[in-house]
Design brief:
Elements lengths: L18 H25 L4 H35 L17
Helix pairs in contact: 1-2
């Protein structure tokens, strides 16, 4: 369900920071999951820990994607409110601090 609703947040994709890392982790998981499962079930040369490690990588990629989308949403909201290069009263640039 989460990945099916991902296109709804398309306006936030330009503000994402870790999209390359998420895509690499997904590719790693998608390629290695069937290979390690096949080695574990049919050949018996691998054990369940290898398959478990791939599922952990997949879950970590989803967590990175979710937190990156949340950051992108907050950053987009900040840019819409204050402009792309906000300034303080003295003309100094504002640094965004997420608390």
């Amino acid at each position: 369900l989460f990945l099916a609703l991902l296109p709804v947040w398309g306006h936030c994709f330009t503000y994402m920071r870790n999209s390359f890392l998420v895509v690499c982790m997904w590719l790693y998981s998608i390629i290695l999951a069937p290979v390690l499962w096949h080695l574990w079930i049919y050949f018996g040369s691998a054990n369940a820990n290898f398959f478990y490690a791939v599922t952990l990588a997949y879950a970590t990629a989803q967590i990175f994607l979710l937190t990156d989308l949340l950051y992108a949403f907050l950053r987009r909201k900040f840019h819409l409110r204050h402009g792309p290069a906000p300034k303080e009263g003295q003309g100094m640039p504002i640094l965004m601090n997420l608390k």
